[in-house]
Amino acid sequence: MPYTPPSRVPRGASERRPAAPAVPASLTATDSAITDDGVYTNFLFDGSDLADQRAEAVEIDTCRLTGVDLSGTRLTRAMVTNTVIERSNLSNLRAMNSSLIRVAVTTNRMTGVAWTNGRLRDVIFRDCRLDLTRFRSTTAANVLFEGCNLKQADFQDADLRGVTFEDCDLTSAQFSGAKMDGARLLDCVLVGVNGVTSMAGAGVASRDMVALAYSLAGALGITVLDEE
Fold it and tell me: Per-residue pLDDT for 4 more than 80?
């Protein structure tokens, strides 16, 4: 069988950026706690302490969360739509069977977040600390990670076919079992990536291929010999 070189996809080809949330400038300020079956619409959470809370079936729509502490909070079947989350602490937040739809997540501390068996659609993660996060078995459509620290992030069994990683640090990230046909990785650090064989069909910037090649060689049992 003749050798077929990998395809080269121009930057920006067939790329659709996530739709940005449309949050009005005027919102009602609140410090309300998050409760089971709570519905929060057109609210501004500014500096709110929402840490270590437990809630099921929460709905947050057309809100802005600025400087909020959500660390250690546990959410089940939460729905967050058309919302901005910025300059907040979400470290060790746990969300199960939850959704983010048309959400901008910017400049947040999110170390250890677990968003499992969830859904992401039209979501932007920008300049966030997302190391040690878990997105296992989550489906992502039209999602952008830009300028994020994703060291040791776990995307095992996730559907990443609609995801772009741009200028991210993915050192030692886990992609085993992920679906990545059509995913894009541009200007990313890919040292020590795990589950690299799941990247079949993904687009990777040519300048990032050297680091990825070592992971791929290891996955295929290839020994890289140093030249004498």
Answer: no
**40-49 b/e with 16+ CB inside 10 Å = b?**
beebbbeebe
SS3 213: helix
The Cα 164–Cα 21 span in angstroms is: 18
Rounded to 5°, the CA angle 164-81-98 comes to 75
pTM: 0.88
How do beta strands 64-66 and 43-46 pair?
parallel
pLDDT in tens, 22-49: 999 999 999 899 999 999 999 999 999 9
Signed CA dihedral, 119, 125, 56, 21: sign only: negative
Q: DSSP for 125-175, please give it.
A: EES-B-TT-B-TT-EEEEEEEES-B-TT-B-TT-B-TTEEEES-B-TT-B-
Which residue has 């999110």 as its token pair?
110
Instruction: Give the length of the chain.
Output: 228
